[in-house]
TrEMBL record:
Gene3D superfamilies reported in the protein's UniProt record: Glutamine Phosphoribosylpyrophosphate, subunit 1, domain 1
Entry keyword Transferase: yes
Keyword tRNA processing tagged: no
Pfam families: GATase_4
Organism from which the protein derives: Chitiniphilus eburneus
UniProt keyword terms in alphabetical order: Glutamine amidotransferase, Transferase
Signal peptide: none
Protein's name in the database: Class II glutamine amidotransferase
PANTHER family: GLUTAMINE AMIDOTRANSFERASE (PTHR42824), GLUTAMINE AMIDOTRANSFERASE YAFJ-RELATED (PTHR42824:SF1)
Domain Glutamine amidotransferase type-2: 2-257
SUPFAM superfamilies documented for this protein: N-terminal nucleophile aminohydrolases (Ntn hydrolases) (SSF56235)
Alphabetized InterPro entries for the sequence: EgtC-like, GATase_2_dom, Ntn_hydrolases_N
A GO term, aspect molecular function: transferase activity
């Protein structure tokens, strides 16, 4: 299956270090070679980079690696195709607009049954179960809420949807509208929170280290979420099956206030 990477911070931060390890899993240190993508929220807008080439050899990934884009919410994905051809249309993360905000979604898993779209305004462009599930979720949210819901209400609605859909397959996903980052674990999802006092981290997929104390301020806080831990010298927390966390300002919240 695919792999996920997310970042949520209390101040705009670049994801260059984590991405350097993550991209190598796209065909170099792992088998996820059927395309990749990454998206950054910036001041109400989004920068989205997609490529159907493996991330380990993609020139677009080289650009992202060398371009320290700063964001408070980032979603990335490397794909091992199970449903749908290898193409840009089937590459995560997927992006849509709802209530005047961009929404991003990436999925790791395989759904045996696709939820009904109920003639809603959101329809897939590609042929993946992932994009179909994303469109179905947005159709449900737009019908259920007449205006943008609070994070607490959104958390409840997404949790109900995830619980229902998980019965038809594996449904690990990352979702964000730029206010927070939602992470749902069906099988495998880990996170680490980096905050003062910062230490040195070493990547699992490359002999690369960084001393965060030298590149951060004492008030910075960063949460990184991944299908598998990206470093081999940090204490990553494994999420429980069925758990949905809302990451706000670099902290995981079981249910936001």
């Amino acid at each position: 299956m695919c792999q996920l990477l997310g970042m949520n911070c209390n101040v705009p931060t670049d994801i260059v270090f984590s991405f350097e390890g993550f991209r190598r899993r796209g065909g170099e240190t792992d088998e996820h070679a059927d395309g990749w993508g990454i998206a950054f929220f910036e001041d109400g807008g989004c920068r989205v980079f997609l490529d159907y080439l493996p991330s380990s050899i993609s020139p677009v990934a080289d650009l992202v690696k060398n371009y320290p884009i700063q964001s408070r919410n980032v979603i990335a994905h490397i794909r091992k195709a199970t449903q749908g051809a290898v193409s840009l249309a089937n590459t995560h993360p997927f992006q849509r607009e709802l209530w005047g905000r961009y929404w991003l979604f990436a999925h790791n898993g395989n759904l045996a049954e696709r939820p009904s779209l109920d003639d809603g305004r959101f329809t897939p462009v590609g042929s993946t179960d992932s994009e179909h599930a994303f469109c179905a979720l947005l159709n449900q949210l737009s019908r259920h809420f007449g205006e943008p819901p609070s994070l607490a209400d959104l958390h409840g609605a997404v949790a109900d949807y995830a619980g229902t859909l998980s019965r038809s397959g594996t449904f690990n996903f990352l979702l964000s509208d730029g206010r927070a980052l939602f992470a749902h674990c069906s099988t495998d999802l880990f996170y680490v929170v980096r905050e003062s006092p910062f230490s040195t981290a070493h990547l699992s997929d490359a002999d690369v280290s960084i001393d965060f104390a030298r590149v951060t301020t004492p008030r910075d806080r960063v949460a990184v979420i991944a299908t598998r831990p990206l470093t081999d010298n940090e204490d990553w927390t494994r999420m429980r099956s069925g758990e949905l966390l809302c990451f706000v300002d670099g902290m995981p919240r079981p249910s936001p206030i």
